[in-house]
Amino acid sequence: MSRKPNIAIDGPAGSGKSTVARELADRLNLLYVDTGAMYRAVTYFAIKSGIDVENEAELDALVKDIRFSLVRFTKSGTVVLWCNGEDVSPFLREKEVSSQVAKVAAAATVRKRLAWYQRRFARTDGVVMEGRDIGTVVLPDAEYKFFLTASLDVRLKRREKELRAAGKSWTRKELCYELTYRDEMDRKREIGPLKKAPGAVVIDCTNLTVEQVIEKMMESYGGG
């Protein structure tokens, strides 16, 4: 039996990557990998341990002690990130984590370690992996690559909805700052900056439903 393909989805925060990637992975029966959650997990452990997130040596020591695993629940199809035997998902959208994750994600040692895990996940039997440098750095040989965009207003509304569903309370001003700050940090960082991968299909999700975005992706997938 031939190996299933890898699908890379990149784009800025709030562009709809996670929702679309989860649905696409479920539809194609592929493993869903949220790389952003991995960076948030490292940030969570750094804060929990009292580590300075701008101290790369301390981050390096920390990330080497974290063991990442993906738990896929057969009945629901939900994929949950576990670190050192702990389900960290309830903590990943806390304000302190969100405000510090861009600094952690800029650390070269952290990116190198997490990219190793991400490529390892992709060697299983095909994945739908979303993030900011998947098509350019982590999986440059992915069979299918997409880059999602959306207006800032739409991204803010989507992130608000996501946070409300998780029981998190953010003001519009806080969210706007977080998204624009993260956009700037992601695009300007030296290691794995946010940008469109060569050959990636660009999809502007501003006026599209999740189903419409997935239909566009399926067109590329089916035509490939």
UniProtKB/TrEMBL annotation:
Protein EC: 2.7.4.25
Keyword tags: ATP-binding, Cytoplasm, Kinase, Nucleotide-binding, Transferase
Gene Ontology cellular component list: cytosol
InterPro entries: Cytidylate_kin (IPR003136), Cytidylate_kinase_dom (IPR011994), P-loop_NTPase (IPR027417)
Main location, first listed in the record: cytoplasm
Subcellular location, record wording: Cytoplasm
Family statement: Belongs to the cytidylate kinase family. Type 1 subfamily.
The name this protein goes by in its record: Cytidylate kinase
Gene: cmk
